[in-house]
């Protein structure tokens, strides 16, 4: 019998339990969970030599996180807290009593806003989604509801606000993508891992910062800002390509560079605001 890494075994056990109790309807999403589990478990055997030293496969934690989200999203329907009726998976309202349901804490920002999980997103479409959801969960719509449902509306509204703020800004969006992939840039032990940046890149950043610090005219600062924006746009395109190919290591390096240039961008904007160039 194949040797299963314990946390992965626990995830699969939960998946099978949901199927046996008919809480999880068969779907392509369910098939993907078992297929991915099989693939990862096969990869675990390549790390059997590390098992005796208590080390985990490098992608274990990311896979478990993915499974948790997938299992949660794969449930065909939920039970309404108020009337125990069925709540379809594609809505937050009971089909019988129309009551708002509690927020699923496992949903990611893309799921909350109802958009496809891509790094390159249409910000105008994102804004339209945001406004529609804010109207849907507005407190005035729930003023005559129970305190419990008012709290649910508040939770949903807060989650929508948080998701929108994160996904609207490309740098925050890039950092969030790394977090979803289990490779955050600034969190826990991963923060201690040095990203190998080219010394020439670091020197170029230093020179731009010095040039910006010595600038005395708005023309000079705006020129720096234009060059910086071009570089930022190029790096964002690189990040999009890396995320699309699921090349997380490359994406982390690119996002690290983006953060340096975004810092310069913020300095330029600060100068422009101080000198009345922008609002």
TrEMBL record:
<dbReference type="Pfam" id="PF00226">
    <property type="entry name" value="DnaJ"/>
</dbReference>
<dbReference type="GO" id="GO:0001671">
    <property type="term" value="F:ATPase activator activity"/>
</dbReference>
<feature type="domain" description="J">
    <location>
        <begin position="108"/>
        <end position="180"/>
    </location>
</feature>
<dbReference type="GO" id="GO:0005739">
    <property type="term" value="C:mitochondrion"/>
</dbReference>
<dbReference type="InterPro" id="IPR036386">
    <property type="entry name" value="HscB_C_sf"/>
</dbReference>
<dbReference type="InterPro" id="IPR001623">
    <property type="entry name" value="DnaJ_domain"/>
</dbReference>
<keyword id="KW-0963">Cytoplasm</keyword>
<dbReference type="InterPro" id="IPR009073">
    <property type="entry name" value="HscB_oligo_C"/>
</dbReference>
<keyword id="KW-0496">Mitochondrion</keyword>
<dbReference type="GO" id="GO:0044571">
    <property type="term" value="P:[2Fe-2S] cluster assembly"/>
</dbReference>
<protein>
    <submittedName>
        <fullName>Iron-sulfur cluster co-chaperone protein HscB, mitochondrial</fullName>
    </submittedName>
</protein>
<dbReference type="Pfam" id="PF07743">
    <property type="entry name" value="HSCB_C"/>
</dbReference>
<dbReference type="InterPro" id="IPR004640">
    <property type="entry name" value="HscB"/>
</dbReference>
<dbReference type="InterPro" id="IPR036869">
    <property type="entry name" value="J_dom_sf"/>
</dbReference>
<comment type="similarity">
    <text>Belongs to the HscB family.</text>
</comment>
<dbReference type="GO" id="GO:0051259">
    <property type="term" value="P:protein complex oligomerization"/>
</dbReference>
<dbReference type="GO" id="GO:0051087">
    <property type="term" value="F:protein-folding chaperone binding"/>
</dbReference>
<keyword id="KW-0143">Chaperone</keyword>
